Each structure stands twice: as C-alpha cells, then as structure tokens.
C-alpha cells in the first residue's frame, strides 16, 4: 500500500517498517487518574504474545516533499488530528529535538522538520477486544522512534496513544507501574520476566465475535472511574497485593497461582463494569459458557489446569500449559462444534488432535452450542521484541513482511542503515530482491 498519493518525485529521507505484538493483561488496567497524559489508577501486568499469530506492522516514511503528516490504518486514511496520534507525534519529535540538542559530535541528519506518512495493518480483528490498540500504538511509537532516530524509553510515547500499549514494548511478562508523579515520568513499562522464562505456557484465543465492541475501553473506564465505588476499592486495596502475588507466581512458574489470580482479576474487572452506572457488559452468553467450561474442566482434573481472562469484549483468552492444550481444545470442540470451517477452526500453533474422554464429557455436562466460537488462535509467549528494517527502495514504500534479519533494538540507527543496506545489496547480488 503506498503511503502517499504523489510519490513519483518524492525520495523519502528514511523509510522504516516495524512490527509489534499484542499483550493480554492478567492484572487489568481500568481507569485513569489523568486523561490527557493517560496515567492509570492502578498498576497492571500482562503477557506479550508471539508475533507469528498476532501483530501490527507499521511503515513510516519521512520526506522533505511531504507537506503534511498522514496516517492510514488497515488501508483507510485516518484523521491525523486525533489528539492521541498528535500526542505521540509531538512526544517523539520532542525526544528527537532533545537528542539533537544533546549531540556533541556531528549533528544527525535534519529530519525533524520533515512530515511523516504512516501506514499500519493488523493481522487480526481491530477493536474486538484483542488489544489491537496496544499493538498499534506500540508499533507506532517504535517505528516513529526509528525513523526520527530516538533511542530513549518509549513508554510515554506508546502510553499517550493507548495506556496498555506501553506494555507491548517488551516481550515476556511486563508490568506497567502506575507511578506517582503528576507529569507521568514514572508511569512506565518494565519487563518482569523474559519470554524464555516459561516455555511451557500456551495461549488460546477463543474468538466469539470479531465485531467492533459497543463501549470502547476509553469511554468505559471513564464511566467506571466516575461511578463505580468497587473500582476505587479495587485500585486502592486489591491491585497492589495482586501485583506482588502475580509477580511471584510468574517468577516461580506457579501455574496454579497464576491461573487462579488471572481468573479472579478478570472477574473483578468485569464486576467493576457491572458496578458502573449505567452498567457495562462485555461478556456474552458464550463468554459465560466458556467460563463454566473452564471451571468444570478444572474441577474434573482436581487442579487448576486452565485459566480464562476477558478484556473489553466477549473473546476469551485461555492460559494453559503445553501438556493440557490438546485436551482442552478437544473440550472446546465438543462444547462449541465448528460450523463449516472445521479445517480452519484452529489457527496458529499445531495442536495434536485428542479424543475427548467419556468421563470428561460427562463432567462437562454441557449441551453443545454449534458455532458459538468462530475460531481459535493457538499461540505462546516466546520472542516478541519489536522488529524493523530500513527499506532502501526508491519507489513508494509498501507494507509487507519484513525481510531484513536485523533487530533494531539496541543498535544505533546509523549502524542499522549500513547493515540493512548491505543486506539488501547482498540480496540484490544474489538475485533475490
Ligand atoms: C480491558 O489501553 O485500550 O484491555 O488507555 O483508554 O486507550 P486507553 O485504554 P486501553 O485499555 C485496555 C483495558 C483492558 C485491560 C488491560 O489491557 O489492562
């Protein structure tokens, strides 16, 4: 997809493509103490998912010939004047200016005055409770940072786009510390444990509906902050201890503790939605059937083998361990028989087909609901650092799979330019490009 309409004579100063992952909160963020700076009323903790299954890809180009900033999302041009997009752009340019002012050698190429064109695509349903804004704004922050040569912490840039986005800047298990300062400088994301820490952990996304949600997170949490006494109690008296306990469970790979707390926190978040006035309800009857299925599955095994969590939508995110995944998928297939899409019902990681044992079927005691779950995405935690490459093409930049093998993070952009240029030249020489 071209980034601009009149690219023929435009030679961009820099073109960067990056990808970013989705994160799923196990201790939920719900409620802001500062709407403009996007500062939360409680800390939160999430698991960053593998990009093979769910990711946002963003390309940004800057050129002296661009007369205005422009942004496309999933092929449609968006209003670049949106306050959150503006906040991200202004913040990244502020950081770039700061870096240039602090430069004590040759100044970096002057790109600050250039306008930017940005195009972003998700490979999963947007705004359906699958954390699309988190991956989207993390990717925007990261790509803009690369294109403007910013190397500082990007928590603030991503957070100004969407609060949960700052957690997608890191792989593995990530906390967003709420901070105390009024300027938000201490409201930052930090990795609790790396992606390699818990290799057996598996994630199943049960897509109940890919429709856009009725009440967006931003509006929903504003209403909850205004009207829910339960939310205030949760933020002040429940979450601090839960953050500490969840961190312990992750560090010790205590699945039972992790799973129980994940479910309890999801339930409390949805209870605050119900406590909001007028009430907000994100869970559908199918979501409730999934909740019952998980509890009956666990009761049958006499142990907590599977956990659910739901964000601001009806889709369930299931956490389990590798050795339980096939059995649980069999239970899901039994309870929600796929329609005509039997072959494509399960996407992502391979799951060995397993028969449903008669005792488990009896213990579930649930009438099948055909088509209740549209499809399942099987995924895991694994490496999820944001990737990117500098495209050296002369024509209009296009979105597509990033072929450059060089990881952007931790390298100087100058050095990357060289690496990617060499990479592209070697591809060209080998007749691949
Ligand atoms: C339920 O980050 O989408 O997914 O900051 O207003 O953009 P804004 O909200 P957003 O809220 C996410 C809420 C949640 C829980 C979570 O991810 O922690």
From TrEMBL:
Top EC group: lyase
Keyword annotations: ATP-binding, Cholesterol biosynthesis, Cholesterol metabolism, Lipid biosynthesis, Lipid metabolism, Lyase, Nucleotide-binding, Steroid biosynthesis, Steroid metabolism, Sterol biosynthesis, Sterol metabolism
Molecular function (Gene Ontology), one example: protein homodimerization activity
Translocase as UniProt keyword: no
Key word Transport present: no
Swiss-Prot/TrEMBL catalytic activity: (R)-5-diphosphomevalonate + ATP = isopentenyl diphosphate + ADP + phosphate + CO2
Single GO biological process annotation from the record: cholesterol biosynthetic process
GO cellular component: cytosol
All residue ranges annotated as the Diphosphomevalonate decarboxylase-like N-terminal domain in the record: 20-189
Record EC number: 4.1.1.33
Pathway named in the protein's UniProt entry: Steroid biosynthesis; cholesterol biosynthesis
Domain of life (superkingdom): Eukaryota
Ranges where the Mvd1 C-terminal domain occurs: 203-381
Transmembrane residue ranges: none
Function: Catalyzes the ATP dependent decarboxylation of (R)-5-diphosphomevalonate to form isopentenyl diphosphate (IPP). Functions in the mevalonate (MVA) pathway leading to isopentenyl diphosphate (IPP), a key precursor for the biosynthesis of isoprenoids and sterol synthesis.
Family, similarity comment: Belongs to the diphosphomevalonate decarboxylase family.
PANTHER family with a match to the protein in the record: DIPHOSPHOMEVALONATE DECARBOXYLASE
Name of the protein this chain belongs to: Diphosphomevalonate decarboxylase
Organism: Aotus nancymaae
This protein's encoding gene: MVD
């Amino acid at each position: 997809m071209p980034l601009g309409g009149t690219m023929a004579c435009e030679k961009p100063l820099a073109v960067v493509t990056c990808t970013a992952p989705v994160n799923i909160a196990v201790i939920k963020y719900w409620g802001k103490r500062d709407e403009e700076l996007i500062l939360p009323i409680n800390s939160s903790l999430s698991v960053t998912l593998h990009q093979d299954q769910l990711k946002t890809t963003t390309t940004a180009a800057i050129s002296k010939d661009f007369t205005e900033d422009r942004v496309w999302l999933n092929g449609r041009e968006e209003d670049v004047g949106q306050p959150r997009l503006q906040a991200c752009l202004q913040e990244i340019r502020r950081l770039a200016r700061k870096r240039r002012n602090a430069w004590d050698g040759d100044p970096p190429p002057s790109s600050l005055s250039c306008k930017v064109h940005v195009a972003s695509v998700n490979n999963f349903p947007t705004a359906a409770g699958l954390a699309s804004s988190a991956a989207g704004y993390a990717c925007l922050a990261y790509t803009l940072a690369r294109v403007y040569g910013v190397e500082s912490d990007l928590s603030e840039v991503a957070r100004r786009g969407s609060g949960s986005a700052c957690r997608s800047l890191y792989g593995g298990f990530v906390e967003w510390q709420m901070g105390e300062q009024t300027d938000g400088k201490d409201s930052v994301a930090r990795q609790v444990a790396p992606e390699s820490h818990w290799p057996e952990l598996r994630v199943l996304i049960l897509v109940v509906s890919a429709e856009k949600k009725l009440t967006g997170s931003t509006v929903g949490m504003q209403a909850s902050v205004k009207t829910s006494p339960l939310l205030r109690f949760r933020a002040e008296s429940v979450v601090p201890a839960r953050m500490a306990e969840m961190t312990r469970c992750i560090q010790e790979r205590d699945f039972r503790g992790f799973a129980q707390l994940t479910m309890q926190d999801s339930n409390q978040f949805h209870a605050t939605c119900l406590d909001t006035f007028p009430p907000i309800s994100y869970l559908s009857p199918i979501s409730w059937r999934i909740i019952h299925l998980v509890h009956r599955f666990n009761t049958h095994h006499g142990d907590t083998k599977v956990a659910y969590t739901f964000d601001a939508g009806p889709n369930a995110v299931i956490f389990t361990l590798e050795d339980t995944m096939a059995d649980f998928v069999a239970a899901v297939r039994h309870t929600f028989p796929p329609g005509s899409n039997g072959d494509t019902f399960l996407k992502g990681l391979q799951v060995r087909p397993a028969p449903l044992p008669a005792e488990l079927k009896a213990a579930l005691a649930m009438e099948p609901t055909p088509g209740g779950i549209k499809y399942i995405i099987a995924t895991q935690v694994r490496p999820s650092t944001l990737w990117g490459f500098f495209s050296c093409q002369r024509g209009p930049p296009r979105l597509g799979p990033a072929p450059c093998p060089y990881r952007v993070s931790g390298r100087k952009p100058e050095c990357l330019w060289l690496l990617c240029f060499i990479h592209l030249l070697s591809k060209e020489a080998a007749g691949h490009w």
